[in-house]
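Researcher: Good morning. I'm working through a list of sequences from a screen, and I'd like to move beyond sequence-only analysis. For each chain I'm collecting a predicted structure so we can compare shapes side by side. This is the next one on the list. No need for commentary yet; just the structure.
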Amino acid sequence: MTNDVWRAADGRYDAASCRRCGASGVRLPAVSLGLWHNFGGADVFDNMRAMARAAFDCGVFHFDLANNYGPPPGSAEENFGRVLKRDLAPYRDELIVSSKAGYLMWPGPFGEWGSRKYLVASCDRSLQRLGLDYVDIFYHHRPDPETPLEESMGALDYIVRSGRALYAGISNYPPERAAEAFAILRRLGTPCLIHQPFYSMLARDNEQSGLFGLLEREQVGAIVFSPLAQGLLSDKYLHGIPAASRAARGGFLKPSRVTPELVAKLVKLNAIAAERGQSLAQMAIGWVLRLPAVTSALIGASTPEQIRELAGKAPNCDFAPEELARIEAVLNE
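Model: Good morning. Structure tokens for this chain:
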């Protein structure tokens, strides 16, 4: 890719679908771009740059990171920092850039989890890697079973009050701990903006646990990660495991996950999607967005074309009762 001066598409918001995040003034695109395992040191920078450009041209103005995204950890923030500097810096006031801390980043007792020391240091390092003065959202990435919740939430409050972030969020918190976190942040005067849980047609624990009902009552937004189940809910696996797929590489998505029974379900879901005039991936995105509590679906991508497929037009989140019943029947087979 050349060093030309890039200009975003003038009509980038024309077909974009934005949704309010809880009771806040923040609106997020229905589809946001996550930079986990697609912006790391082993990935091609020109492709990263092309994906970021394609996303923003489609009205995707939210880019989600974490301190440990890569691999190696930290490299996704470094690479996105390069994209910001070369292409997106003129549009900074249009962007939502988020990061998180909670998983292992460096040796010693303050290299992971939820101490004030770790969270504040992590935020500072993320800002350095990104080349930013602040991030829009900073999350605690996972609950810490040993650090008092008041300390972790107090650190988020401090990060916001010190100008390092504009809003606070949490991720991977079960309902009971999430409710406690919301109450603490509310008392501190920095209400929780958003929760980032794991959710898809193939992973429904957070729906069944009552988490989304809690978020509606608390007026906290939700952005769900892995809504495509790491690509399973796409057309990639309708005939088994392709050679270049995540399952073939044997990372987080194991080949053993792609069973004949699962493939049979995917084929049936794909047929329902076709009747709706959608790809399976488009239907899967619309399905998670059908819940009132869900503000945005956080996708990963490996090509600009995948981003255009999922974010190039407003997702169809309307399902007739009989369509939902058919989907439910397939999922429960």
